[in-house]
Amino acid sequence: MALMDLANPTRFLALSGRVLPWLAGAAAVTLGIGFVLAFRAPADYQQGETVRIMYIHVPFAWLAMLGYSLLALSSLGILVWRHPLADVAHKALVPIGALFAFLCLLTGSLWGRPMWGTYWVWDARLTSMLVLLLLYLGLLALRSAIDDPNQAGRACAVLTLVGFINVPIVKFSVDWWNTLHQPASVFRMGGPSIHPSLLWPLFATALGFTLLMLTLHLAAMRTEILRRRLRTLEARTAAEAVHA
Amino acid sequence: MADTHAFFIAAAYGASAVSIALLALWILFDGRAVRRQLAAMEARGIRRRSNTGTGDGR
């Protein structure tokens, strides 16, 4: 099946229906393995046991940024190619990305209190991540504030693309400003600076949460496609009742 | 375990698990509600035009 065939909502429903149980299973197994590895990994020589929070905090941060980047791609699909599945993908992904951004901030705060002595500082990395969460919440609010679904989709796409400037700011904030938050230690020039005994469990949980995000996104997209079919049927029934 | 900050680790994992579980349940129940409404429409004989006669869900 060609990739473009998936752009047909009916084919997407059929294929995603077959893939979804396997994807959910793979996410559960990978996360299970990841958590076992995370709690069997040695404690950090500076952070002690608190390093365990890194195994969820870092994937949440990556997925919040990945989610927003996917929203930006979907926005191009809405504005340039005007494909209905792009708007479906956009709408379904916003609450999921928002949750990951929120959990990134929450777990970071719970790590920061014992390590830095405070839950929060107005440091560039933390502040730009908070802006990312606010952008997600703004998208939720904007879509619910506009009645016309097509207009709402286009408005959300524009806001997404404007807000995308924040994604590289989140990533490079630790390089551009003096921050309390530590600099990049995985995706950096010269390779990861984390010891492999801590790095592999991190990759395992990151893969597990990525599969989980994909599972939730596909499930939410399927519901959204059906919701639009329902809306079309309701509109047609109402129109027929008027003409009868 | 005072120096290991068990409370903060448990709070981080616990809050994450509960939040993700709530989101997953919301997506699940939202899907079920929409499917139920569509089924009710179909039971009243209202279905998509492309669905009429083919019976293959299109």
From TrEMBL, chain A:
It is found in: Cell inner membrane; Membrane. Pfam families: Cytochrom_C_asm. It is a multi-pass membrane protein. Residues 5-181 form the Cytochrome c assembly protein domain. The keyword RNA-binding does not apply. It comes from the Bacteria. The chain crosses the membrane at residues 20-40, 60-81, 93-112, 124-143, 155-178, 198-221. Keywords: Cell inner membrane, Cell membrane, Cytochrome c-type biogenesis, Membrane, Transmembrane, Transmembrane helix, Transport. Belongs to the CcmC/CycZ/HelC family. Required for the export of heme to the periplasm for the biogenesis of c-type cytochromes. PANTHER family: CYTOCHROME B_B6 PROTEIN-RELATED (PTHR30071:SF1), HEME EXPORTER PROTEIN C (PTHR30071). This is Heme exporter protein C.
From TrEMBL, chain B:
It comes from the Bacteria. Its main location: membrane. It is a single-pass membrane protein. The chain crosses the membrane at residues 6-29. It is found in: Cell inner membrane. Keywords: Cell inner membrane, Cell membrane, Cytochrome c-type biogenesis, Membrane, Transmembrane, Transmembrane helix, Transport. Required for the export of heme to the periplasm for the biogenesis of c-type cytochromes. Belongs to the CcmD/CycX/HelD family. This is Heme exporter protein D. The lineage of its organism: Bacteria, Pseudomonadati, Pseudomonadota, Alphaproteobacteria, Hyphomicrobiales. The gene is ccmD.
